[in-house]
């Protein structure tokens, strides 16, 4: 069997399967808070110097920059997120597709590389019946690690048996779209106790 880490064509299949599997039933501002806190807690536990950004449509609904990051991470987030918005696929999948064809996004895409980066770390927020409604992005690690951190967080976020996290100190705003399907809220594990 071919190792997808070294075979771009095999990796495309793995990345596509992740996107097919990681579909949410809804995604509210409260959900963005919980997913963002899950990512931030995971990054802090690993001492990962990352910036985390979550968008719902064109609205930034979560942003966190941890120690060791810089404004460059915000630039990478914007560039990777634009790829998700343009292609409705993860930035890692888009870049890997180009590599599977023996080229790169930068060499073969007509898009400005100062505005678009097909590097791992931005993942589409896909909602059943609605399609891609936003993006969750991590920047600060190697592209495969940025991507893996987002995928791991989404897998945990979707898990039905994860203990709840405290809610924000202010009540979330009501969802302006009452027609959106509303399942039970996902939950986030509490931070691990300090050693």
Summarize this structure briefly:
The chain is α+β, with helices and mostly antiparallel strands. It is 40% helix and 15% strand. 36% of the residues are buried.
Describe the protein in words.
By secondary structure, the protein is an alpha+beta fold. The chain has one domain: Beta-Lactamase (2-Layer Sandwich). It contains 6 helices and 5 strands, in the order H-E-H-E-E-H-H-H-E-E-H. It has a 5-stranded mixed beta sheet. Helix 1 runs antiparallel to helix 4 and helix 2 crosses helix 6 (143-158).
Main sheet, how many strands, which sense, barrel? 5 strands, mixed
Q: What share of the residues does DSSP label as strand, in percent?
A: 15-25%
Binned, the helix content reads 40-55%
CATH superfamily: Haem-degrading domain
Order of helices and strands: HEHEEHHHEEH
Detail the poorly predicted runs.
161-189
DSSP helical segment count: 6
Please tell me the total number of domains: 1
How many strands?
Answer: 5
Q: Say what oligomer this is.
A: single chain
In the CATH hierarchy, what is the architecture at level 2? 2-Layer Sandwich
What structural class should be given to the helix and strand makeup?
alpha+beta
For the termini, the CA-CA separation is 41 Å
Rg, rounded, reads 17 Å
- The largest sheet has its strands arranged as 1-4-5-2-3
